[in-house]
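Exercise 4. Each item below gives a protein and its sequence. For each, produce the structure-token representation.

Item: Aspartyl/glutamyl-tRNA(Asn/Gln) amidotransferase subunit B (Kibdelosporangium phytohabitans).
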Amino acid sequence: MTAAAELMDYDEVIERYDPVLGLEVHVELSTSTKMFCGCPVAFGAQPNTQVCPTCLGLPGALPVVNARGVESAIRIGLALNCEIAEWCRFARKNYFYPDMPKNFQTSQYDEPIAFNGWLDVELEDGTVVRVDVERAHMEEDTGKSLHVGGATGRIHGAEHSLLDYNRAGVPLIEIVTKPITGTGARAPEVARAYVTALRDLLRALDVSDVRMDQGSLRCDANVSLMAKDAAEFGTRTETKNVNSLRSVERAVRFEMTRQAAVLASGGSIRQETRHFDESTGSTSSGRAKETSEDYRYFPEPDLVPMAPSREWVEQLRETLPEMPSARRKRIQAEWNLTDPELRDLLNVGAVDVIAATVDAGASPAEARAWWVSHLAQEANSRGVELADLPITPAQVAEVIKLVTAGTLTNKLARSVVEGVLAGEGEPAEVVDKRGLKVVSDDSALIVAVDQALAGQPDVLEKIRSGKVAAAGAIVGAVMKATKGQADAKRVRELILERANA
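Answer:
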């Protein structure tokens, strides 16, 4: 780990250097089978149970391209405003690593399926930055190494390593930006915003579950610095497999301060891959970074080139959903949100769940009230995203309907939500199991009101003398007696009726 003394103050970095970013995002596609064979791709299966001779690279096994994978690659390219190749092919990327069963990766090199695109990225203050996309190409994922016995989970210091080839051959799209310049102090923020926008786009396309915590979306962050008067980019480092949005921003910021300290002391930057440590927010050296020549690319001899017809490409263009940026503008208008209100919803990841709750029958205001208050607090305490809470938008909408119908009070509704989160069933089931339905029988309420009035004769006299605000004390007593299951408004009406009877 780089010591804190070897870092330059961030403001000084910006005064002396211009950062240059290059972001490579790897996306596992949510196909049913792997890219070149029929093995399933379900996450979390027992190690080495989703493999076959093809994805293990056994002699004589031949690959067959996954048509859905190609279709997803084209749709991603179109959504990123890319040109779609009229002719492209796969190549072999040769390197040795234990989790590469074939000792090469079937990828695309100089002939990708999509190229020359862009994605507009909105920062928190509304500033829009256009990030140019160099390419989006198809490839297969590698297997997974588990290093056992060390303190860090990495190979250094481990006693032994285990290999799981279930992931080997899973369809992967790698999206590579062109150099991102001119962002200055906001470079880390731009990096995070780009990966966020890309994740939202891929989710809208329904081509991946984009679960960074499970590795289905991973970012390699390339960072270099150039002096203010320099004409050429500096030497870059590549921080590999950063697996959260916050970590993308932290990794870029750390590398800027580390590289600046090295350069200012007269040192030079080593072109290398680096690893990001979530616990410290720092990067550490991995290995020297190869160049394309080191991979000895050559055309894959077992796969024929592909030539997507223009008719097919245009048919796929028609399947594109409403893009996230356009959807946000529409929602902002429909929900009557200010720019800060919309940004707040985006920052807590609430837009999609609120929209789904509205689609299930709730009003935007009611849906917002639930997701950004009680449920946001619950997600924060559990350390998960709102969408990962064990309650669905449809269930939240059902709770709201029960409140609107008078079956529940807001307080009782919170108890119902707690029951759903605890796995006690659907809202209606929780209401029955916990006995949470509002007491709407006037005869039962009158008994409780009369008892409360009899217990506080001084309050009764105040009400009779015209001090109706005193009724609040009786309302509280009735609510306590009914365990909060009475309609407070109806209780107040009955109190005034009974007091003046």
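Check: Residues 322-434 form one domain.
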